[in-house]
Amino acid sequence: MPKHLAALLAAAFSLAACQTASGPGASASATSTAPEVRRIAPPNLDGAHLGERILCYRPMRRGAPNMSVQQLGSQTIAHDYGHGGSGWTLAPGSAKYVVDLAEKAPQCAGRAKSEPVVVVGAGVIGLFTAYELVQRGHTNVTVVADRFDGLTSHNAGGLLAPVSMDNAPDMQAVIDRIGVDAYRFYAQVAQGKHPDFRGGAVILPAYFERRSDSGLEPYVGVVMEPAKDVVLDFGNGTRRSMVAYDDGIFMDTAVMMKELRDWLSTRVRFEQRKVERFADLEATLVFDCAGLGSGSLNGDAAMVPVQGHLIMLKDQVPADLQHMILVYFDEGRTESGQKVKRSFYIFPKRLPGTGANDVGVVGGTFIEGGTPETPNPREFDLLIEGAKRFYGM
Questions:
Q1: Would you tell me how many other CB atoms lie within 10 Å of the CB of residue 354?
Q2: What are phi and psi of 53, to 5 degrees?
Q3: For residue 32, what pLDDT is reported?
Q4: Higher confidence at residue 26 or residue 325?
Q5: Is residue 51 within 8 Å of 312, Cβ to Cβ?
C-alpha cells in the first residue's frame, strides 16, 4: 500500500484493540458488569470477493430537510426533500408528516380526494408519499420523474439510523417523531404484520462505537430497547468494544423499492419526464420529493450532494452477515480537495438478480459537494483498507 495511504489510514483509524467497559460507548451502570462477548466472523474482503463499486449522491439540505407547504400562484407545493443519508430512515414518517401539513393547509380545505395530485420524484420519499396519499383516499395521483430505476434509493445501504443529515436544533423533535413513526412502519413489515408489504425490512443487531453515534437514543423507551455494551470478537485476536441495539432494522432497499412500485402500479399513474418548473404541472396540489432535483426546482442554495462510496460483496457466507455495523473514522480531504468524513459500515444488502451468496455491502464516505465530475476513486481503496483494519485483518 502506498505510504501516503498507510499514513492516512493510521490517522483515520484510532480504535483500540479492546477498550474496557468504562470506556467510550459504555454506560455508568455497566462498569461493574463485564460486557457480553459476541463472536462475529469477518467477511472475506479479498479482491475476488469484492463486487460492484457504486457511487451514490445523497440529497442533503443544510440546516434541515425542507418539510413545508408553500403557495405559488394557484398551486400548493408540499416540500419533502433534503434528508441526506436518512431518506430511508425517515421516509414513511416524513411522508405522513408532509401529507398532514398539506391536508391541513387552509388552501386545501374542502379539496376533493378525486382532484389531481402530482408527486415529483420516484425515490423512496416520492414513493412513500404516493403510498400515503392513496392510503388517505386520494384517487387521482400521478408520480412524475425523469428516472425510475438505478436511483440512490435503490443503492442505499439500509440501516435505520438518522445519520448524515443536517438538523437545526428546533427541528430535532420533529425529526425524532418522524423517525419513530418510520420505525413502527418498518417493524410491522419485519414482523410480517403489515397488510401491504411482506419484504424489505429485517430486525437485526446494529453495532456502533457509542450510543451518540447511532442517533437512536430518542427511540429508546418509545419503540426500541436500550443498547447493550458488548465486545465483538472476530476470532483472529481482534476485539472491539461496541454498543448493540438488538432491535435495529435493516431495510433491504432494492426489495422495498420494488414492493412499493408494485403496490402503486395499479393505484397511481407513472409518467417519465423531467420537471423544470412546477408551473408546467397541471395539478394544483404538488408534492416536491425530487431530492437533489428539488434544489434547482426551488432555487434552494442550501441543497448539496453528499457523495458516498460503497462496494458490493460476493461469494460470502450469508449467515455470517446477519448484523449491521457503523463506525466513524476521521475527517480529511479527497484527491479532489473536497472535505470527506470517512466511516465503515456493513449491511446484508443484495442487488437484484445476484447469487444467493452475493450478499453484503461495505461503505462509506460522506463527501459534501462530491459530483460525478469528482468521483474520488481512491476512496474505494481507503474504504477496504479501513474495513480490514477494523477487523484486524
A1: 14
A2: -95, 130
A3: 60
A4: 325
A5: yes
Provide the grid cell at 384.
477496504
Bond from prior residue into 82 cis (ω within 30 degrees of 0): no
Mean pLDDT for the stretch of residues 224-251:
98
Residue 335 pLDDT > 70, yes or no? Answer: yes
Output the CA–CA distances (angstroms, integers) from residue 27 to 20, 21, 30, 294, 316, in the order listed: 11, 8, 5, 42, 34
Q: Could you identify the residue written with the cell 434509493?
A: 153
Cβ atoms within 10 A of the Cβ of 289, count?
30
Give pLDDT tens digits for 191-206: 999 999 988 999 999 9
Q: For residue range 203-216, what is the model confidence (pLDDT) as tens digits?
A: 999 999 999 999 99
In a 3-state reduction of DSSP, which class is residue 215? Answer: coil
Range of the domain at 349: 3-60+205-249+304-391
Strands annotated E in the chain: 36-39, 50-61, 66-72, 75-81, 117-120, 141-145, 201-208, 228-233, 239-251, 269-272, 285-288, 303-313, 324-333, 339-347, 361-368
Question: 25-66: per-residue pLDDT in tens?
Answer: 444 444 468 999 999 999 999 999 999 999 999 999 998 999
- 347 and 259 share one domain: no
The backbone region for 337, taken as left when phi is positive above 0, alpha when psi lies in -120 to 50, beta otherwise, is: left
Q: What is the pLDDT of residue 26?
A: 42
- Same domain (yes/no): 261, 344: no
What is the tally of structural domains in the chain? 2
Confidence (pLDDT) at 92: 97
Whether residue 79 is found in the same domain as residue 162: yes
- 320 — phi, psi (to 5°)? -80, -5
